[in-house]
Amino acid sequence: MIPIIDDLLLGLLVGLMSSILGLGGGIVMVPALVILFAFPQQAAVGTSLLAISFVSSFNVIRFQLKKLLEWKTALKVGFTGGILSFLAGNIASYLSQQLLLVFFITVLFYLIIQTIRAKNSIKTSIPVKTSEKYVLKAGALAGIISGLTGVGGGSILTPILIGQQNIKKKMVVPLSNAFMMITSIGASIGYAMHSPIVWEKWEVGALHIDTALLIFIGALPASAFGTYFQSKVSLKVRKIFLLFFLILILIKMLFRLGAELGVL
Fold it and tell me: What does the DSSP assignment read for 152-190?
């Protein structure tokens, strides 16, 4: 079991990275749990998803109190994504560590490409109208990716929601959080089903409940600070730091994959 202070510090890092750089928590949590704390890939992914479910549920409550959630749309997009994330989490228990690492590395490549292509100024970003059918397909894909990699899926769905002209821009982040809540809970259930329950260690299947809770607790104050601070950092600077951080994680995970395959 990871010492409490390490869990809280990881939560602090996740909160800062998410709020300042816009980096999904799973991209930080999964490599940290695998590389720094020697979690098996399945346990790292499952625990990351459980922590994301806590964070996104907390955010959903806040957005609901502000009446910013359109539940009809959230449930429509989240239904298929939630089912597929559950199935992906269920199937992931039977997949090899190496294959799950390949899935995670593929998502990293995607995020790096998207970051390179991103504009440095929000004024140059023009939303492109997309169809509802396309959004639903993207939600389904994001659910599968979430279940296999431990990434919440918001990084895939949010840009697409922005392109929906019938969705108010202030509703995009609340909808994304509702989607992440549904898919991460679904995937967490899948990861909980195939390993023995060890209550004295707070382990249910591949989920380390104590670790996920402490990460969540550590992330809350960091997110509040980061949300205030991020407006003072230009998009260009954030893009540079985000790209550097993603490439660093990619290199670490490639070395990890090489070690798993016996190449390094």
Answer: -SHHHHHHHHHT-TTS-GGGHHHHHHHHHHHHHHHHHHH
